């Protein structure tokens, strides 16, 4: 278990900063268009990352967390064939090329709504941070490009992708880590006509059961999962244990919140409702071997506020890992 990052490097100095901070494992972003990510390009990118003393543990598939109207490959979640089959073929090719290039894992989203938020709110010292207050969200916003999308429709599209892609991941020994729907919404009514089936613990349990594979699991966003819970400070540990015991956690987005289901604010890692040290101890007890990384941090003052906020969080995570005795 070790600290990691998915903060996109702006230049080589950012790779140097990661190394200098002891953040030696990263989710990196290869250059160019994903359709051009062949074995040579991915190998050269991995070697470039490694030249700074870093390990390239993940890259993102071109299945991002944006609303479907801004998706890189929208037809997979719109369920439109033959376009989705062409998009899935590209994903399969990226997985094969990752294997040949020595990149062990990929992360991805299967979403229509993207990340839904209300207005940013003030937090410690005048910083601003993401929040979601369901009672403040527009209750009758326009539908997505998918139109009304039921539970059955969502699962058909998700399962079609899983059955098409996970066997390729099996063959090539590439871990595939799915991010949950952020945030959870009431079910089955959902939001903007979409039933967020991956926005509940039961939905994530169903997802990992769609295909028996050691390479089919979760980009376990602990922040998003706590947003699903009525009482995160008590309930999160059973959720971590469930997926951790089954070896379905391939990466952890390690952040904290105040609040819970339908009403929360993202906090600094040290001032939310969840006991993050207790979480690290549990991951260690479960033998979790991969990255703990921040995915978001509050917006701080100053010209380089983003890197400052992430640097603080990296150090805090490193301290928790060291104190747990489970670091390596």
Topology:
Layout: E1 2-5, H1 12-20, E2 25-27, H2 39-50, E3 55-60, H3 75-78, H4 83-101, E4 105-108, E5 121-122, E6 128-129, E7 131-133, H5 151-172, E8 175-178, H6 201-208, E9 216-221, H7 222-227, H8 232-245, E10 249-253, E11 257-260, E12 263-266, H9 276-285, E13 291-293, H10 305-324
Parallel strand pairs: 1-2, 1-13, 2-3, 3-4, 4-8, 8-9, 9-10, 10-13
Antiparallel strand pairs: 5-6, 7-12, 11-12
Helix pairs in contact: 2-4, 4-5, 8-9
Figure out the total of helices.
10
Distance between the terminal alpha carbons, to the nearest Å? Answer: 6 Å
Instruction: Tell me the Rg in angstroms.
Output: 19 Å
Principal-axes shape call: globular
CATH class: Alpha Beta
CATH architecture designation: Alpha-Beta Barrel
Q: Would you count the extended β strands for me? A: 13
* Average pLDDT reading: 97
Q: Classify the helix fraction into a percent range.
A: 25-40%
- The number of domains is 1
Helix/sheet category: alpha/beta
Low-confidence stretches: none
In terms of DSSP E residues, the strand content is: 15-25%
For the biggest sheet, the summary is:
8 strands, parallel, barrel
